[in-house]
Prior knowledge:
By secondary structure, the chain is of the alpha+beta class. It has helices spanning 16-22, 41-47, 51-54, 65-82, 126-145, 149-182, 188-218, 234-247, 267-284, 315-318, 339-349, and strands at 8-9, 14-15, 26-31, 36-39, 84-93, 99-111, 114-124, 253-258, 291-298, 301-308, 353-358, 363-370. The strands form 3 sheets. A 5-stranded antiparallel beta sheet has the order 4-3-7-6-5. Strands 8-9-10-12-11 form a 5-stranded mixed beta sheet. A two-stranded antiparallel sheet has the order 1-2. The radius of gyration is 24 Å and the shape is globular. It starts with 7 loop residues before the first strand and ends with a strand. Residues 1-12 and 328-336 have low confidence and may be disordered.
Amino acid sequence: MSEPGAKAFPDAGIDFRQLFDAAPCGYVLAERDGRIIRANGTFAAWIGRPAEQLVGQRFSDLLPIAGKIFYETHFAPTLHMLGSFSEVAFDLVDASGERLPVLVNATGGLHDGEHVQILLAIFRATQRRHYEQGLLDARDKAEATVVSERATSELREQFIAVLGHDLRNPIASIASGIHMLAKETLSQRGSRVVELMGGSVLRATALIDNVLDFARGRLGGGITLDRDAEEPLEPVLRQVVAELRSISPKQTIETRFDLNEPVDCDRMRIGQLLSNLLGNALTHGAKDQPVAVEASTAGDELVIAVSNAGQPIPAEALEKLFQPFFRGDERLKQGLGLGLHIASEIARAHNGTLVARSDAVATTFIFTMPLAI
């Protein structure tokens, strides 16, 4: 990919290099690995650093931790496979540490059929933030008008209907389509795309479950249980592990199950609890170390423990870890912050406990509940 035009237009006297630098949107030219070759003056001004200081840095270095993970695991691989990406929302971190919401369009430059460079066109996402603020204002106004038990009940039913129907049904259709495509003979790239789509569907389904449970709890419904001591719990736990292995095939998950006694529990809820804990461990644990999952029935208790290596969680963050929307530690600033909160609510609904321990060796979440009511 050649450098943006350095020659002036002969008749009009237009310097296209100057147009590139002074464009109202940000432009970044990067190597295939995201390392910046050149950034225009508009983008440099947004970041608050001279353009020459940005050269050599990776674009993902300008993103918060959640943005880095999304860029490396989804944005970059998809861009290299498809050749372009449109209207992707990121938060840039400027020189003062403030976040700048932007929308990014990306195109991969070709040389001998290979994507060798990336051109990013970046726009300020002012309208998106106005839209989000409008949603927050609408929510506050709605909460102010919900003053009666009947109004609260109607709001709960409408919210549940949106999540249960308007979101679940399209996701179920997508999952069905992915399942059908997986049976076809696909190219290596096609198989990878189907795999990425399948992982996204699993994450979206889990996110809906967490938001739905949180809404029920806040609107008076609480965590509902369908307890049954007749059916075994282990197959559900193994299915959860298998699903998360499919999403993170490069990470090792070691399991040890010793479930010899019946457990009077809601098996699907316990599976949701394990999914939230294991997903958290895979996201925040050391990528080169295995995540350990242990489940056992000892004495009169069920114990499930999930451990991962990596940087320990600070003591002050441990105290608030199960609060909804908690954002105390930089490594936790992704997702909605509801997974651990919902896991703790599921534990409480089973008359159990969920605790976290973290040191230089490992971070471990331990769920304990009585085998019988």
